């Protein structure tokens, strides 16, 4: 007959009778030990399938007499208790545990039936447990959580739902550990993940976009933790993260686009701010998982190489150029605003952006050109820093990529320094007189990005010095040819015609023009150009710089006109040029960079 009892009473009745019967079965099995060891094996050897060890036979009797009559009701009552517990009610889980143990123990019959002529029980089969409890339990679980998911999402946010899912998963693990068989854990969790996560992925993906916009790191971490449980479910999440980072990068650069072209520091540091922000997000929210790190890299590469700034100039390599300019601001003497201790971190950040730029050869072209100006103009803030960043580039791109940069540094720091010292010793030993005190930079042609010099007439004041050095160099290096790069040279002139003496630091071209006034005090523009033989366009640029600095004056151009929109193209060849006798202290060197 069916048990007409309350839930606890049904389970108490079943478990009490089971425990009593189990004890009796073990005692009976002990009494019949002789049969188990002798007669039963003998019968089994005769292939009698209806003969069992005594204990197994008692289990078969329980199954036939008691279990088959009451298992549906007992299982149902167990499931009702589990449902109550899921609804936050207190239950007596010990009753469920004892029922489960009985179901597992009954599997001994299944185990014995498949053994081949042996009475030794290796391990209990789980057929009874799975067929009469686990299948129904999993069906009940799916039904319960499917209803809960629908109801909960109708009244709560997806973020709160995710917290609920995380809680439910932990509860199910504890449930198995407390009173179910351990073999149920994997299939149970898979079922819960399917109902609560897989079937709600669309809502979860939508919530991910909201959390990214609001920078909810901890909520994103939970979302990632749960989505990771579903095979391939993170693929869509990676796409969402990549698209978000890319858009944030595009928006950030658009906000500074009006000034970015002329402000490489602002441009690169804006990129770095985006990368730093989302590198932290990927680390904290997604545990630096490789797929999300790759999504970050793809997003950064896209917005760095193609954004409103690169589009404005129709040049996809503009980021390479601006990065090279940013390096120049850090490495150039007088430009630094960064503490020495922070420089290596800045260099590491430079390499972050460098790794994303697509055309690294364009970066090298601009970097090499600015590096050459720093070296020749003696504008390097620190040779150690120059070596450090070259070593980082070498580590990333290999020896061939940086070989010219390393040669350039060696030409200045070692070769040229040694040659200058040797030349001074040479001059002392040879009693060289009437030469200008100077230092020399000897540069290997193939390593430096310098164009061939424009022709001009070297003034007598400098000619002997250059001829003397060339003679010395040819003695040291027979077969080599020196090409003088006057357009990259500079020197000092002292004024002897002013009441107060001044030292003028000027380019070689500026020096050549100013030295003309040692011959006479007034020249026409045409005469000066003819005397120096400097290319006309270049000559007019240099002359304009000298006029602007007020070292020289032009009778046809007054001071007011100099400050207006005039330029070198307004200078006529018949204009008269004189040296300025009453100029004030020349505080800034004439900027010859524009003529290079």
From TrEMBL:
Keywords: Isopeptide bond, Ubl conjugation, Ubl conjugation pathway. The keyword Coiled coil does not apply. Pathway: Protein modification; protein ubiquitination. One of its GO terms (biological process) is ubiquitin-dependent protein catabolic process. Residues 318-547 form the Cullin family profile domain. GO terms for molecular function: ubiquitin protein ligase binding. InterPro entries: Cullin, Cullin-like_AB, Cullin_homology, Cullin_homology_sf, Cullin_N, Cullin_repeat-like_dom_sf. PROSITE patterns: CULLIN_2. Pfam families: Cullin, Cullin_AB. The keyword Ubl conjugation applies. Gene3D superfamilies: Cullin Repeats, Cullin, Chain C, Domain 2. Belongs to the cullin family. This is Cullin family profile domain-containing protein. It comes from Rotaria sordida.
């Amino acid at each position: 007959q069916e048990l007409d009892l309350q839930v606890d009473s049904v389970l108490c009745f079943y478990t009490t009778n089971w425990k009593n019967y189990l004890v009796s079965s073990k005692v009976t099995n002990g009494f019949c030990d002789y049969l188990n060891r002798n007669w039963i094996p003998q019968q089994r050897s005769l292939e009698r399938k209806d003969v069992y060890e005594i204990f197994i036979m008692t289990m078969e009797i329980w199954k036939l007499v008691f279990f088959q009559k009451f298992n549906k009701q007992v299982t149902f009552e167990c499931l009702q208790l589990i449902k109550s517990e899921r609804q936050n009610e207190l239950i007596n889980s010990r009753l469920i545990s004892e029922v489960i143990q009985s179901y597992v123990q009954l599997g001994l019959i299944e185990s014995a039936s498949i053994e081949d002529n042996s009475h030794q029980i290796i391990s209990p089969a789980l057929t009874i447990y799975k067929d009469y409890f686990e299948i129904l339990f999993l069906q009940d679980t799916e039904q319960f959580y499917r209803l809960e998911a629908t109801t909960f999402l109708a009244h709560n946010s997806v973020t709160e739902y995710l917290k609920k899912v995380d809680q439910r998963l932990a509860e199910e693990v504890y449930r198995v550990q407390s009173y179910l068989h351990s073999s149920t854990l994997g299939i149970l969790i898979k079922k819960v993940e399917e109902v609560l996560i897989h079937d709600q992925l669309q809502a979860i993906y939508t919530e991910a976009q909201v959390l990214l916009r609001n920078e909810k790191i901890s909520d994103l971490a939970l979302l990632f933790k749960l989505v990771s449980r579903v095979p391939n479910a993170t693929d869509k999440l990676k796409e969402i993260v990549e698209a978000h980072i890319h858009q944030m990068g595009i928006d950030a650069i658009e906000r500074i686009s009006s000034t970015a072209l002329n402000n490489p520091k602002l441009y690169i540091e804006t990129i770095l701010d985006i990368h730093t922000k989302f590198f932290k997000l990927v680390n904290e929210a997604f545990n630096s998982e490789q797929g999300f790190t790759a999504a970050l890299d793809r997003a950064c590469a896209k917005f760095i190489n193609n954004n409103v700034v690169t589009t404005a100039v129709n040049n996809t390599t503009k980021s390479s150029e601006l990065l090279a300019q940013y390096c120049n601001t850090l490495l150039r003497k007088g430009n630094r605003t960064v503490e020495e201790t922070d420089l290596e971190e800045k260099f590491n950040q430079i390499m972050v952006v460098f790794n994303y730029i697509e055309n690294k050869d364009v970066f090298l072209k601009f970097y090499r050109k600015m590096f050459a100006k720093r070296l020749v103009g003696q504008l390097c803030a620190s040779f150690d820093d120059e070596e450090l960043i070259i070593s980082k580039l070498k580590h990333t791109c290999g020896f061939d990529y940086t070989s010219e940069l390393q040669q350039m540094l060696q030409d200045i720091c070692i070769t040229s320094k040694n040659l200058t010292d040797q030349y001074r010793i040479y001059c002392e030993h040879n009693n060289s007189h009437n030469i200008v005190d100077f230092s020399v930079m000897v540069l290997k042609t193939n390593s430096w990005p310098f164009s061939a010099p424009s022709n001009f007439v070297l003034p007598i004041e400098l000619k002997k010095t250059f001829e003397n050095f060339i003679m010395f160099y040819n003695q040291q290096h027979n077969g080599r040819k020196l090409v003088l790069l006057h357009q990259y040279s500079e020197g000092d002139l002292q004024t002897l015609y002013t009441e107060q003496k001044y030292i003028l630091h000027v380019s070689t071209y500026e020096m050549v023009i100013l030295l003309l006034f040692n011959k006479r005090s007034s020249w026409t523009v045409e005469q000066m150009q003819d005397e120096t033989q400097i290319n006309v366009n270049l000559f007019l640029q240099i002359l304009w710089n000298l006029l602007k600095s007020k070292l020289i004056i032009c009778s046809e151009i007054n001071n007011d006109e100099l400050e207006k929109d005039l330029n070198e193209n307004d200078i006529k060849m018949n204009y008269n040029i004189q040296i300025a006798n009453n100029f004030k202290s020349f505080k800034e060197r004439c900027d010859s960079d524009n003529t290079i």
